[in-house]
Amino acid sequence: MSLGSCCISGVKHEGTPAGEFTTINGTRVYQALPKGDYDKTKALLFFTDIFGNSLPNGQLVADAFAAEGFATYAVDYLNGDDAPEDALSRNKDFDLMAWLSKHGKAETYPHILKTIEGLKQQGVKDFAATGYCFGGRYVVDCVLDGHLKVAIVSHPSLLKPDEDLPAIKAKSIPFLWNTCETDQMWPKECQEKADEVFKGDKNYQRNYYEGVSHGFAIRGDPKDEKSRKAKEGAFESSIKFLKENL
């Protein structure tokens, strides 16, 4: 299991998050709720990259999902031990692989399961999930464990194409993949393998964003036109996908 330098590349986004932190079944969650009436039987689980809920980036995207009518819950599955913000500026003291060794499935996934159970106790019946980079792995885990009705990943990390893709297909749920041109975590050969595995499958949709790299949908530079438009495109397609399938 490994990550690359692309997992700590990108920029901190500006903005004031509108949601709030709460505790659900013992797990800290950034909760972004729609204004006015919304369907309280549906929830969108939001799995950040390795920067967790410390950076505003994920919170702002979660807020945007809520503004479109989806109750969104950014689970602190990293248990407060996010990668430090200065890792974006290539802090030489940050050891990515040492950090990863402390954030395996045994340490992280239980927080997601506790959140799902807590939301079920609140009346949620249908779950979707969207995951970015490191968080993409947990979307797949939730799919394989039967927790989701809809799944979305953007430039996912730590997937095992030979194992995961056939297993995902067997679950037969709507799954959107936001992919890009430069991505060492989910490179062209993996993208094409997914196309092959899911060929003709109505549940499969893959978007491809040329001229951008891993992290574009959550850490991309908003001052760069290609990056900004790709991020907007991935978000808009995610909204459309959720409205059609959740």
Automatic annotation (TrEMBL):
Gene3D superfamilies named among the record's database cross-references: alpha/beta hydrolase
Pfam family name, one: DLH
Residue span(s) of domain Dienelactone hydrolase: 29-244
Transmembrane stretches, start-end: none
Domain of life: Eukaryota
Gene Ontology terms for molecular function: hydrolase activity
Stated name of the protein: Dienelactone hydrolase domain-containing protein
Organism from which the protein derives: Microbotryum lychnidis-dioicae (strain p1A1 Lamole / MvSl-1064)
Lineage: Eukaryota, Fungi, Dikarya, Basidiomycota, Pucciniomycotina
